[in-house]
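Journal club prep — side note

Before the paper discussion, L.F. wants everyone to see what a predicted structure for a comparable chain looks like in token form. Sequence:
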Amino acid sequence: VQLQASGGGLVQAGGSLRLSCAASGRTFRRYQMGWFRQAPGKERGLVAAISAGATTYYAESVKGRFTISRDNDKNTVYLQMNSLKPEDTAVYYCAADPSGGLNFGYWGQGTLVTVSS
């Protein structure tokens, strides 16, 4: 499984960005997909996840501001980020578990999101 993340950039606080992650594989619709982030000096943590059945999970810090979605026809998962805060600044990674579980063994290269105050 290969993952290609894109969409990061520099945005002012209160602004929005949409991240995309294109995945390889003919069974993408079965994958559990997740977005993680790692800020400088901090551990990587799960931000949002979406199951094959489109059940979603969000970290408490992003609930109500971020939305994860998927387009199985395009083998792509998205992370819509609204009302961005400086503390959202991080490298964002997409990850996949082709078995549909929570063992995210496949990772994209990361895309940097910088939120200025």
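L.F.'s comment for the group: The chain is about 0% helix and 50% strand. Keep this in mind when we get to the figures.
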